[in-house]
Amino acid sequence: MSPLTDQEFAGFRKLLYEVAGIDLSDAKKLLVSGRLAKRLRERGLASYGEYLRLLTSGRQPEETQIAIDLLTTNETYFFREPKHFDYLRDKVLPQHRPGTAFRVWSAACSTGQEPYSIAMLLADSLGDAAWEVTASDLSTRVLERARGGLYPMAQAEHIPVPYLKAYCLKGIGSQTGNLLIERRLRNRIRFLQVNLNQTLPQVGEFDVIFLRNVMIYFDMETKQQVVRRLLAQLKRGGHLFIGHSESLNGVSGDLQAIAPAIYRKP
Question: Is the pTM of this model over 0.90?
Answer without folding.
Answer: no
